[in-house]
Amino acid sequence: MTALAGSFLFNIYIKLSYDFRVIEFKNIYKTYPGPTHVLRDMSFKINSGEFVFLMGPSGAGKTTIFNLISAYEKISAGQLLVDGKELKSLSSSSVAKLRRSLGIIYQDFKLLPDRTVYENIELTLDICGLNKDTDKATMVDGIIKELSLTHRKNHYPEQLSGGEKQRVAIGRALVHEPKLIIADEPTGNLDSELSRDIITLLKQFNKKGTTVFVATHDRSLVNLEGSRLLEIKEGEVVL
Amino acid sequence: MSLKYSLRHFKSSFSKRWPLYMSSVITLSGISFIILLFYLLFTNFIGSVEKMRLGSKATLFLEKSLDDSEVKSLFKNLYKKPYAKNLNLNTPSDLIEEYFSGKSLDKGYIEENQLLPHSIELVLVDGYSLKAVDDVLGDIGDMPGVEEVVFAKSLWNQSVKLQKVAYSFFVSIIMLLIFGGLFLIGNLVNSSMSWKQEEIKIYKLIGADNSFIYIPYLFEALILSVIAATISLSSLYFLFKANTLILSEFFSVWLSKSQLKFLDFEAIAAYLCLFILSVVFASLLSAKKIATAV
């Protein structure tokens, strides 16, 4: 109940600009100087509430797709639409707003080494502008409990295992209840058992309505029950 | 972005990296101390030269035939002159009191027979060359009622030259110190910001906007610069108090111990503002550079 109240108050504080009801890649090309064509005529759609696995070998363009969605890079040609709005020529403040609407999980976790588990997760709420300590505490404690990290709350990343670090990264990505999570090889540094646990965790959040877009090259993790597979190769969609 | 977050960020960073912060404060304090020390020496040296020049005033001996109204009229005319910084009228009684006090003589006789003239002590304004002083003395000497003009020309000339040399020397040194100080501050901030690169990168990936990135570092720079300025100013003050005797011996030709001055309030306030702004600005540039690069 308290967690719900905290969540409600949080949404009063910040306005998530993007609901990510639909993400659409329309004939997208991405070329790097060289020239290196990473994405060629890529088209696909992700609808709200879906769980999509993005599969492909190394160099297929998985990370590039995520970089484009998070406005870390710009498309060379084509249209990238989020809720019908084109992500083109965003200002730096618009880019920041877009990223605050997302939950991004990286293969190498990207945790702040001099912050505790609690502080790493709390960082997202600070960035989103939630100032009230009690509301923050409610939300952070809630997510820490969901991720079974309560006993590690005051530990630093160097004191955590790989699986725990990834769960902290997931917590940081989810604490502000984004509509879309993008996870770029979140199990890349983990063993198979931990990897399955992470995917299961993401599926649990997906069941609550969060759209999840996960990149992986590990076919054994792909559980198509309630999810979709998007396979790419050499910058093109093959499945 | 709240002040509370900035404070929390600073406390968290300080607790983990306090040696780096301490060394930054010490370096900033050192830079500030040296600049302030030279400025203190500069102001007292210039003050002492000013005092020396005040001693070289022109003494105008007036004709004994002038009555009171004529003396007053001459005094008023001189007062209007652009070269007159300060005027002091001495009557014969003043002269008797000043030069003959303690000696037995018939003061009444001297006064009645007008054996001593009125005199005017005239302090010239600053910035006059020796040639200009010559013209001024000529102008004064030509005024009706002025019998003789006495002026220590060589002392005036020396003090003007000394002041010019002192200004050039100290201003050059202080400018060098300021530029050197700004360079050191810039380098110090850059090197202390380099470990924050990864932190800023992660902030940006999560969606922090520029104010979220910059404000904690500006807050940090503000705190460190205030601490450094306070340490340097306090150290200089205690050093000044402890060594006033030594300094007064250095300046003893012109100044007594009580005349040595610490920096005035306006100079301190102006310096503190400039120093703190420099550090904060350097920090902003560095943060911006890193935020743009990552």
CATH superfamily heading of chain A: P-loop containing nucleotide triphosphate hydrolases
Could you describe the largest sheet of chain B, including whether it forms a barrel? 4 strands, antiparallel
Rg from Cα of chain A = 18 Å
Can you tell me the CATH topology of chain A? Answer: Rossmann fold
Q: What coarse outline of chain A follows from CA principal-axis ratios?
A: globular
Q: What helical percentage do the residues of chain B reach?
A: over 70%
Distance between the termini of chain A: 43 Å
Report the count of strand segments of chain B. Answer: 4
Tally of individual helices of chain A: 7
* Widest β-sheet, arrangement of strands of chain B: 2-3-1-4
Largest sheet of chain A: 6 strands, mixed
Helix content of chain A: 25-40%
> What's the helix-strand series of chain A?
HEEEHEEHEHHHEHEEE
- Beta-strand fraction estimate of chain B: 5-15%
N-to-C span of chain B: 21 Å
Shape of chain B: elongated
CATH-derived architecture of chain A: 3-Layer(aba) Sandwich
